[in-house]
Each structure stands twice: as structure tokens, then as C-alpha cells.
Amino acid sequence: MALGFFSRLKQGLSRSTQKLGGGLSGLFTRRKLDDAALEELEDLLITADLGPAVAERVIESFRASRFGAEVTDEEIRTTLADEIARILEPVAKPFEPDPTHRPHVVLVVGVNGVGKTTTIGKMARFFTDQGRKVMLVAGDTFRAAAVEQLQVWGQRTGCPVMAGPPGADAAGLAFEGLQRATAEGADLLFVDTAGRLHNKSALMEELAKIIRVMRKFDETAPHSVLLVLDATTGQNAVEQVRVFRELVNVTGLVVTKLDGSARGGIVVALADTFGLPVHAVGVGEQAEDLRPFEAVDYARGLVGVLPAAAENTAE
């Protein structure tokens, strides 16, 4: 899987790699790592969405270890990939259901358009392929398209979908889904939700109601709350995490649409700012393009360095 997915990851991150890696090539054909070079590198890291805090830490590391040395862009890339990997490794935690909960209830949140419903469908495919029994709840009842989309994913993956008419009570659907999933011995229950962040108080009330009603059946539910983020929003993703953490107890992140963005550095900024587990990243439209997050491969893909296992292998 590693090389195959790295190839897709590299392709999906191509815009981000071009922005960051291409900028490095422009700065460091062969150059002394002096104050001017470090300042230009810091600006490049910030514009690549790694964020000021990460950029400052990376620069200080370079200053302590390589200041005054002649460096090439390849040396900078490799060192930068190692620095980024160190930031990402503590949060790179593939999502794993807790077997003591059957079903393990996953509340999936995020603003409209980030890919929540598609993410649920892809995760359902991933776990059904592992032999897990998965059920889905179409809780974004304000958007008929979201309900229909989840039903299509249910057909593709063979997962039952609890759905109601437009405007149906999402909390009631979640409760019925939890009852059914428990009765049928499901391993996982994914609950889709609305994402109308422009009405923050109403969204907070709806999410709180879903949780409150599910806890009438299982006082420990939900067992995970996944926040889905769209990489194309860049630094806005940081603000979305802050807002949703006020609304619910976010336990982990999924970052989508990296293939449509030059802002892959935002994953680094999120890791550094919040320390929340990053469970998966999406680098394409296919189900297999949402994969467990791997820190070293991601860091190397972001700056355009081959993974260690593939350095001597032609793509």
C-alpha cells in the first residue's frame, strides 16, 4: 500500500509541492544559509500555509544547525521534510473503532461543502472492506442532495442508511439509527450532520440535541466526533476547528480535497495549533484516495522528496 498510496499522495499534493518545493528550488540552487536566505524561507513557509509559528520554529532549527553553510535545495527539502514530519508524527493516528462499543458511534461534523458525506461514504467502504458491519445515518436533513448522496454510498458499500423526508428531525434519526445498529450488531454507526455555520447558535443547538437524544439510548455516545475540513480553505480551516470545538468535543480531523489545492501545508498548521489526531487525508475522488494519515510520507510528499523505501525506485 505504501508506495501505491504515496504515488497518489504525491500526485494529489502536486499543487502544494509545486508551491513549496518550487519555491525552495528558486531560493536554494546553491546558496549560503544567511539571514536573508532564512527570511525568504520563512516567508515561503508562511505563504505555503504552514503558519507563522511553524515557520518560526523551522527557521530557528535551521539557524541552529546550518547557519552560514552552503546548502542546496535538495538538502533544504530533506531537512524541511524531517522537521515537518516531527510536527506531524504525534497527530498521525489512523481512526480505529473501539471494539468495546458496538456500535462505535461516529458523529461527523463540518461546514457545508467540505465533503462530510463523501468522507462518510469512503470510510464506510474502507471498514466494510475490512469485514466490519457499518450503518449510516443521513442526518443532514436540510439538504436533500446530501441524503441522496449518502444513500448512493450506502448502495455502493452495502451499508444500511437511516434517512427521513426533507427537514426530518436529525436527532430522532440518529436515535433510531443507534437502536437499529445495536439490534443488528453493527460495528460502526456514522452520523452525518448539517453544517450551516452561518447560524452558529442553531447549529450548536442541533448538534447538542443529537448528542443528548443518542445518550438516552447509550450514555457514552458518540464515541468519536470527526471534523471534516477542506484543504482549499487554507487558514480558514484553523478558524473552523476553533468554532467547532466550541460546539462539540472534536476528537479527530479528516482533511479533504488536497488534490484541488496548493494549501497542503495547512495540515501542518492544524497539527501544530491544536494537536488533534489527523485520522485521514483525501487526495482524490476515488474511495481509495481517502487513506489513513502517515506523517513521514505526507511531509516528504509536501516538499517533493521520495519516501525512503522508494528513493531508488522509479515512479
Automatic annotation (TrEMBL):
Keywords: Cell membrane, Cytoplasm, GTP-binding, Hydrolase, Membrane, Nucleotide-binding, Receptor. It holds the Pfam family SRP54_N. GO terms for biological process: SRP-dependent cotranslational protein targeting to membrane. One of its GO terms (cellular component) is cytoplasm. It catalyses: GTP + H2O = GDP + phosphate + H(+). SUPFAM superfamilies: P-loop containing nucleoside triphosphate hydrolases (SSF52540). Residues 103-304 form the SRP54-type proteins GTP-binding domain. Residues 9-88 form the Signal recognition particle SRP54 helical bundle domain. It comes from the Bacteria. It is a peripheral membrane protein. InterPro entries: AAA+_ATPase (IPR003593), P-loop_NTPase (IPR027417), Signal_recog_particl_SRP54_hlx (IPR013822), SR_rcpt_FtsY (IPR004390), SRP54_GTPase_dom (IPR000897), SRP54_N_sf (IPR042101). Gene3D superfamilies: P-loop containing nucleotide triphosphate hydrolases (3.40.50.300), Signal recognition particle SRP54, nucleotide-binding domain (1.20.120.140). GO terms for molecular function: GTP binding; GTPase activity; signal recognition particle binding. Signal peptide: none annotated. Its EC number is 3.6.5.4. PANTHER family: SIGNAL RECOGNITION PARTICLE RECEPTOR SUBUNIT ALPHA. Involved in targeting and insertion of nascent membrane proteins into the cytoplasmic membrane. Acts as a receptor for the complex formed by the signal recognition particle (SRP) and the ribosome-nascent chain (RNC). Interaction with SRP-RNC leads to the transfer of the RNC complex to the Sec translocase for insertion into the membrane, the hydrolysis of GTP by both Ffh and FtsY, and the dissociation of the SRP-FtsY complex into the individual components. Belongs to the GTP-binding SRP family. FtsY subfamily. This is Signal recognition particle receptor FtsY. It comes from Acetobacter peroxydans.
